[in-house]
């Protein structure tokens, strides 16, 4: 599947403000970036670095007043996600070192508090994939997708208690439940074809049988057509914009459309 994605962010700042963005794509895994454009208006110097997860980060100082960030890309990605109910746990002693961090509690994913709930959900299931899928389905069935109930500080435990949230919150809860049973699980942010309403989206991946599998707690069935912007332990690692001063977002436009054959 070939997708054209675009994101436009319009801001206003009263002062020059240092900013970090995660808005550029990398080829790898199930996606190949065919072409890409990144523009800042008015033009200011932009530097780039890779964070500890391998995500592209852009640094700049915003001009005073109005400015915008515009990105677009054409990406080849998978039409569907791989499903393997026989995929099992990898023993902790056999995990690659880069997966170990995704076993630990993090700011928004208090996995050390959720073993009892996870055990209740998975009951007598035998394989790791079955357990993660059961957790995904449980979150979708028990957490109502609604705006205005969560805040940027809402954690997995908060979501479990209030039983409302958006994709970010549902992913955090699923991640925390999976980590509590020793399955490495990471937070993903990016674009999803045919998402309604269109916006940037969050989902999660679990490490089973030596590879990462895609799961989405907001969908009845996890679909393909995904373009990954960044991944990390939770939303704290993959904020699409981090600002160090006053800033106001005036408008945000996200587009995803299928192109070519």
From TrEMBL:
Gene3D superfamilies noted in UniProt: 2.60.40.2250, 3.10.620.30
Domain Transglutaminase-like: 159-219
SUPFAM superfamilies documented for this protein: Cysteine proteinases
A Pfam short name: Transglut_core
Recorded superkingdom: Bacteria
InterPro entries: Bact_transglu_N_2 (IPR048930), Papain-like_cys_pep_sf (IPR038765), Transglutaminase-like (IPR002931)
Name the record gives this protein: Transglutaminase domain-containing protein
